[in-house]
């Protein structure tokens, strides 16, 4: 619709230009001077209309292009991922570092969970001796603090990991199973030591 109006204005401009030329051919110079102002006013008005319609068309085309670009961008695809099982802790001090690192990543540092929810999840993953831990305050922070005080004994954890490596049984007959067990035990202990982030003088 806007384009058709612009076409009409352009057509009118062309007709006025032709009429003006014809008028100049049949009119005396004195009369031309008197009517020049009228022609200029008509031309100015038509030019204003032309520019206005062109501006509107440009804005419409720009909006259409933006909309087309958005329509080409696929909607965010939500893939249903398998549920992540929370790590469990049974009171074995050797497993504390791995447990806490995973639990902190999934629950403690999760800003979408409130303290009550975090406490619920923490209690749900405590097994064995760790499940018997009690606190004076029934809060997430108090329970986590008691667990840290009890199980985050870095020197004892380091000693246990080193003993686990030193006590690995010698492999008399090479077998894939024994080699895998050896590698798994060493990797588990080294990973636990790395998670402690110990300073050299500790």
Q: Could you give the count of β-strands?
A: 0
Beta fraction: under 5%
Total domain count: 2
Q: Would you tell me the overall average pLDDT?
A: 72
Can you give the helix content as a percent range? over 70%
Give the distance, in angstroms, between the N- and C-terminal Cα atoms. Answer: 80 Å
List the helices and strands in order.
Answer: HHHHHHHH
Report the sheet with the most strands, covering strand number, pairing sense and barrel closure.
none
Poorly predicted tracts of residues: 198-202
Tally of alpha and pi helices:
8
Structural class: mainly alpha
Give me the Rg, rounded. 41 Å
What gross morphology would you assign? rod-shaped
Pfam families: DUF1759
Overview of the molecule:
This protein is mostly helical and 202 residues long. The chain has 2 domains: 1-65; 93-199, no CATH class. The protein has helices at residues 2-26, 29-72, 96-108, 115-125, 128-131, 140-151, 154-166, 176-196. Helix 1 runs antiparallel to helix 2 (29-72), helix 3 crosses helix 8 and helix 7 runs antiparallel to helix 8. It is rod-shaped. Mean pLDDT is 72; it is low at 198-202.
